[in-house]
Specification:
The two termini are 25 Å apart. The protein is mainly alpha-helical and 222 residues long. Helix content is 78%, strand content 0%. It has ten helices and no strands. The chain is globular.
Length: 222
């Protein structure tokens, strides 16, 4: 009975669905390589891996809190690591730009592949955001936790710009911090950076708010 219950919980867990979705993306990438013989979209597998990294940090943070409260500096560190890698999740949305390389002859399979990867990265990121939001609510009032989440989304929008346009990576904070911060200082006043930052921040906020609204309504409707 307990085994059946655990299996039921396992198959109903969001992590299982996310793994299935990412596996579907990997199958599509492999199928395209088999069909065309080229490695054009293999980079999507790496981007998907990076999209899972913030969820890993969110899970580790929540797991550590189950034993005992963390020291404040450790919580700040976990939040910082999560936020540093979080832009990698919605970043895959910008990979849709690769469809421009084949205007007029875009195969439906390429559209399916790029959208599936973008959607997978986005949902994985939103799940990690939800976990972090719940953790923050344990230490802050609701309005302050929402303030931190909203601020994180604006930083994420800027991070997406730095990744797509300026070609910076999350780990450059450790490997090339001087040049990274110098470019950040320049890009803060760039109108294109501001537009992209605000655009993605608002989009992510609306999608996240919509998701938790559905979750809250489903719980209250039981």
């Amino acid at each position: 009975m307990n085994l059946q219950l655990s299996k039921s919980k396992l198959w109903g867990h969001p992590l299982t669905a996310l793994l299935q979705l990412s596996a579907f993306c990997i199958v599509l990438i492999a199928f395209r390589h088999w069909r065309t013989g080229n490695y054009t979209y293999f980079f999507l597998a790496w981007n998907l891996f990076l999209a899972w990294v913030p969820l890993f940090f969110a899970w580790i943070w929540r797991y550590r809190l189950q034993d005992k409260p963390l020291r404040r500096w450790k919580s700040f560190g976990m939040f910082g690591l999560w936020l540093l890698f979080f832009p990698n999740s919605p970043y895959i949305i910008t990979d849709l730009t690769h469809l421009n390389n084949g205007i007029g002859k875009v195969a439906w399979s390429d559209i399916l592949l790029l959208f599936s990867c973008a959607f997978s990265g986005l949902v994985v990121g939103l799940y990690s955001l939800y976990i972090v939001h719940k953790i923050l609510e344990q230490s802050f009032k609701a309005v302050y936790s929402w303030f931190l989440i909203t601020g994180s989304l604006f930083l994420t929008g800027f991070g997406i710009y730095l990744g797509r346009v300026q070609r910076w990576n999350s780990w450059d904070l450790f490997t090339n911090p001087a040049n990274l911060f110098a470019d950040i200082f320049v890009q803060i006043g760039n109108p294109d950076a501001i537009k992209m930052t605000v655009g993605f921040a608002v989009l992510l906020f609306i999608i996240y708010y919509m998701a938790i609204s559905i979750i809250s309504y489903a719980k209250s409707d039981k």
